[in-house]
Fold each of these.
Amino acid sequence: MATHCIPTVNSVGDCIQSDLVGPGLDTIVRVSSFASPRDPAAPAAAPGPRPRPARRLRAAAPTAVVLAATLAAGGCQAVQTTSTGEGSAAPTADVTDVSFDGKTIVEGGDLVMALSAEPDRLDPTTSSSLYTRYVMQTMCEKLYDIDAEGAIVPMLATELPEVSDDGLSVTIPLRDDAVFADGTPFDAEAVRTTLERHLTLEDSSRRSELGPITGVTAVDDHTVRVDYETPFAPLAAVLADRAGMIMSPTALAEQGDAFGDHPVCVGPFKFVERVPQTSITVERDPLYYAADDVHLDTITYRIITDSSIRAANLRSGDVHVADSLSPQDFGELEQTDGVGLLQVASLGYQAMTINVGNTDGVGSPPGSIDTPLATDPRVREALSMAVDRDQLVGSVFHGLYDPACSPISPASPFSTDASEACSEHDPEAAKALLEEAGVEVPYQVEMKVSNNPDTLRLAQAIQAQVAEAGFELTITPVEYSTLLATQDAGDFALLQLGWSGRIDPHGNMYNFLSTEAGNNYSGYSNPDVDSLLTEAAQTTDTAERAELYGQVVTQVQEDNPIVYLYRTRSLTGYTTDVAGVSTYADGVVRLGTAAFVEEG
């Protein structure tokens, strides 16, 4: 085992210990403690023609997945088995919720959840952080949600959408018993107001998610109709996430762009206060339509970015729930009395995003970045081929995660051979591509990453792997919320972040890969990809959509604006004096009906 001292972003004198094992990992990480400008290198003069290494594909490591399962006797659900890797002794089954069976609910109390990163603004229209979704889940219910099996179910809607024969009008029936936390009635006009805001707010991240909407109409008090220019199949799935969180029109009128400072929605809890970098507190909302199902008085989300400290607080009982536990701590926590663990395979991915054209901020027309990494797909393909994904998940994450080369999970009914294909790890072929591209080797590039131990271990492993292929990677750790802003602004050459995943591939692809879309952080633009993604959203046939998404993946793997790395498992810990906690494949920890309990 090699031990390394990794300077943190806060102080180059502070260190964390890394216990990476495996070949090629005993390298000191080179870390800059400040944000540096984009790679200024220009392409070198190309040498004479030479044969290009063949692009070799392999199937991504399979994940044996079943999205549907029945409740086990203990109240937990086993819906997936993940592949094993180095350091993993056996396949691991999904456990999605903590049952109340055999337990007595204790009414009241303050539950404390350790949150692994600072959420961005609590605004459904602009938010892009998974951790914001954790908090908003208890305050801002959506028109739809997903259940433990991954099925879309009504929430503030009463039925799944009714689609007209031509696919251009979608009618959604709404609850008639809901009230916003400020007393404003929940109705079709409130839904219309929220959707219009998603479509028109200048910095909206939801606009491109919602498809080619031509109008939103409140048909009556409890029916809303959404009209489309062309059919849009993913609407229900889109409304099962932030786009479906309905905001109080009264609060929107009073607060405007400051809504995220004091959000008001329909939910079991309502916002109380936020202490930046420290905590967010919500309290039970007596106006909630299902108030009898809410048991806690308050929930405090405490920001604890270090996974080992989250685990220690869980063991001591100072927190009752902790998200995103590290695989480094998982084995010990499994053996800890008074601690239980939820784990579920992710529909999302972790990746490296390459800035190929984000010069004026996300959603803007792509610009020109004059570096080999940005302009030459051979350099980006070399980077993808330089990464050994199997070795990454085995050594860094003890085999609890799965390699990934696309945004479509093998769990998805839209998965195909094309979407599971993966560039072969081949350092020599990668180096040959760099030579063909005419760049000076070692090719220097800076990668910005989140400043937490697991990510730094990952970055160090990537750094060692790609060095063998001719890349000299410098790692710049950045605080998570700052990294989100950096990503939006395009202030990076290479950046490591992930996406928690959506049940429909549209939610994992369109916003990231279509030209000028709300999460297209790379500034990528390919008319063929735009056309394929649009066509896939217009058909309801699963096989047709799957084939189209496979074509998208094939093209994206040639262009490589995003280099997909692996899929996590959502590892959530809880103390055994609480129940009603759930984590599903969308990665969100659900606490709305959680409670303290005693053994019956």
Amino acid sequence: MRDSGDHKSKKLERYFSFLNNVMKNNVWAGIVLAYRFCYNFCYLIGAYTIRYFRIFAKKIIRGLKPAVRFLCRAADYIILRRLRGFADSVAAETRRFLQGFPIAGRLVKSSFKQGFASFLKTVFAVIPRRAVKRHRRSLSTICNLAAPAAAVMVLVMTINLWGGMTFALAVEYDGKKLGYITDESVYDTAANMVNDRVINTDNSFEVKRVPKLTIAVVSKSEIIDENAVCDKILENSNDSICQASGLYIDNKFECAVQSRQELDALLDSILKSYCKGGPNERAEFVQNVEIVDGLYPISSIVSIEETRAKLTEQTVVDKYYTIVKGDSPLLIAAKTDMSLEQLRALNPDFDKKIFPDVKVLIQKAQPYLRVQVVRTTEYKEAIPYKTVQVKDDRHYKGYTAVKTNGVNGEQRVKAEITYIDGIEQSRKILEKKVLKKPVDKVVIVGSKSIDNRITAAGDGISTGRFTWPLPSCRSISSPYGWRWRQFHAGIDISGNGVYGKPVVAADGGVVAEINTAGWGSGYGKYIIIDHGGGYRTVYAHLSAVNVRAGQKVSKGQFIGRVGNTGQSYGAHLHFEIRINGKSVNPVSYLR
């Protein structure tokens, strides 16, 4: 054995030495030999693996054959033989069943000939009895097989039924059963949810906090949660609550209406009643108006007609002031705590109706729901001319003469006007475009100083044109004409702080008459100046007379001071122009 091993090792050494020499001499020949060696090696490994696997498989099959034969015999004994027997029984019973049809047919045919009663007896009694007797074995077998299956089914159903049952509380509310809950906290939560859903404006709706609860065994599927309990409480409360739309004004609940559509239409109609239908206007409520849909107590539901009456009723009525004797526009404004602009806006021709017992509107009625309309409009308006005064020291202060008459201009105005309840509240000018420029009025005014003492004689020259007698004030508080059922022969000039202001001669002339006593006459202290040609002027209710009778005065010369003497109800200057002893309206002659 040792010599054989040495021989093999020497053979291998010679083989590898040969390979080594070949590779040294020729590289490509070495590569080919190496490839052939690897291929032969892999082929031998695969061949031996397949051979041994086949040998192993044959041994396993040879060892399992007895076990397989045993299992086949056992299956044939336990199952197949019984199945074959059952199949044979079913086949035999099927043949008997089919053979019974001809027999039944003959019985039916024979009974039909004997009469209808016999036919019915045969069909419903004889044939079924014979069929049961003929197939009693099969029926018995079927019952024996079905009974265990039915018992198993009943057991499964019972287990399933009791497995789905549990203990619960039956809830009864106002005599009506709501359902089953797990515990009392479910009902408490549902009651709170009901209170949250119902808008209880008048506190007329109340949820019972202590319902009737009883223990019961029910299916788990019958148990309801707090949401379902809440819905059922609301369903059972249909006689006290309903779905409606609530109207809130300035976050205050006013009423609820069942139809949201009717409420929206009502509010739209109120807005449209203040609109003119123009494209450049928008209307909105002055108050904050909000509609909230929800569940409301029936006691808070009103009709749409009642809602309309409530929203359009007058919460502030018209208020008037009755003029009394001695009132003037300024005095009325002071008594009513209003401005002249406000009085004139509420009362057209206000200044022409200052008579006793005449009512003046000082507060306009307002509806409950007020509407603001913003309207953009374009209109033309006059551009007032400016008055430019040119001083002339040749005349006394208070002397005026028009050199150039003023002419108003014209412009197109685009404005955004805001109305509340149909009365203009503000006007925002958006754009102005001048169409015609105004022409300034040039007035010559005297600049010669007036002596506050008793003045020296003037020139006494009458110009034939009268100037304003009270330079510091140009407001007429009482016009010429009838007032308080008496004729007012002149005009009253008055204003704030007018007492003691200088009075000037309306034109040059001679002082015809004075009264310095302040009593004994309705005029109080007064001055009458004769201007010639039948013209005379009267200055009454003075506080001081600064001229003498027979004295010459110039136009615009200082002659006295405003007072409150005689029959006077406030500081003012009563001024008259008389022509041949008859009074005329001074406004027509003054410049």
